[in-house]
């Protein structure tokens, strides 16, 4: 990657600054595409219409099952002497979608796998790979998750026990991370803050709608001062037109969110989902499973307070936390 960027510097006579989540630069008529993939990072330099390195060239089929899928799609296409347009006709998509599949930017689904297996008489090769990829743990899921968030138009979050990461203050982050196995807490805070900024601080931020159990705002994480500041921050965010915070009161009883936190991310007119876990999460691209989670989110929402009632409850808790902080400072 550094070598390719260096070549671009020499040919253009400028210095390239690579920022987090940067998707594309146009410099002196040359296009440099920088993208974090589920199977690595690639640089594709295009000069005068000639491409030197493509994302598909950089795929490492041993890095994950989804990378293997992307790699084999290209191998089988070339073996059958087909173009991306011809493969697109098999699966019902345009050529650019096939390019994205081969680059690992999007993932093959079961219906597409069935169509390819039938057309190429593979004996079910692609269907088996999709099956095992869905069951397995993608080691690069976090990179893909951050990329989806940074490009999202809508993010819907259910969180039970803590304030969702996009809404956390830095002190609140530190209090959480201090109890985790993070080796460098400050570096982890910086990473979370960068992810947060990529969502909320960009010129056209996404709609972010959050459903929180009341436990998330009543738990005293980090002490009175940290929690008072966190609740005040949550109140301020809730006043923004693109942010919605709704609480599930303790009286709501059992609901589908008790199985664990999850989020739904709308990006490029499609939805992906993330299901959280204590020591890792998983991204879900399968349309049927994502739709099930979307229905779960709506059903959880039926039990939540309105935005106005939620703001009033958070304001009440914020006032109590501020009083407790003041009392603690005076003693």
Give your account of this protein's structure.
There is one protein chain. The chain is of the alpha+beta class. Helix content is 48%, strand content 17%. The chain has 13 helices and ten strands. It has helices spanning 2-12, 65-79, 84-91, 95-103, 110-120, 125-135, 141-151, 170-177, 185-200, 215-218, 224-238, 287-301, 307-330, and strands at residues 24-27, 30-37, 40-47, 50-51, 154-159, 207-213, 243-248, 262-267, 270-275, 282-284. The strands form two sheets. Strands 7-6-5-8-9-10 form a six-stranded mixed β-sheet, sandwiched between helices. A four-stranded antiparallel β-sheet has the order 1-2-3-4. A hairpin with a 6-residue loop joins β9 and β10 (282-284). The longest helix has 24 residues, at 307-330. The termini are far apart. The model is unreliable at 1-52 (pLDDT under 50).
Give the key terms.
single chain, 48% helix, 331 residues, alpha+beta, 4-stranded antiparallel β-sheet, disordered N terminus, elongated
**Radius of gyration over alpha carbons?**
23 Å
What letter string, H or E per element, gives the SSE order? Answer: HEEEEHHHHHHEHHEHHEEEEHH
In helices, the fraction of residues equals: 40-55%
Major sheet description? 6 strands, mixed
Q: Round the mean pLDDT to the nearest integer and report it.
A: 80
Q: Strand fraction band?
A: 15-25%
SS-based class: alpha+beta
Sheet with most strands: strand arrangement:
7-6-5-8-9-10
Oligomer: single chain
Runs with pLDDT <50, length 5+?
A: 1-52
Q: How many beta-strand runs?
A: 10
DSSP helical segment count: 13
What is the end-to-end distance? 57 Å
Shape: elongated
